[in-house]
Fold:
Amino acid sequence: MTTAKTSILVLCTFLLQPAGVIAQEMTMADLKDPQKLTGDELRQVLTGAKVASKTRHGSSRFWTNNADGKFTASSDSQGYQGRPTTQGTTGAGTWHISPIDQYCVTIEWRTTAENWCVFVFKSGDKFYVSSKQNDPSARAVEFSFSK
Structure:
């Protein structure tokens, strides 16, 4: 196959991929002067906050962090485990701040469960989460926290 045909084939493959699959992942090194939130800052930002995020596979997820540590999450399931679906889902969840100032979440979806803890960083006017606090190569994911 000629170089031109190969390039066109690669371009077509790229353009046909779902957006969540081809989105370039960010790392902590991509953020400008990220500031890690302390436990007190996390309590202020997270308690009562409406949370929005996107999964690695493109699903949008939403919930509100109730003061009692509980929430109901919803997802459009646009990229459930790497494959798009046509049906959204909901799940019961809990959240807390760990002793090492991590935002911890558990969500019981209909068919699976999530359980994770992340550090929260502010860079400019946006929030990002990462599983590591001092690793420039660690994945950084944008989260929206609003009240």
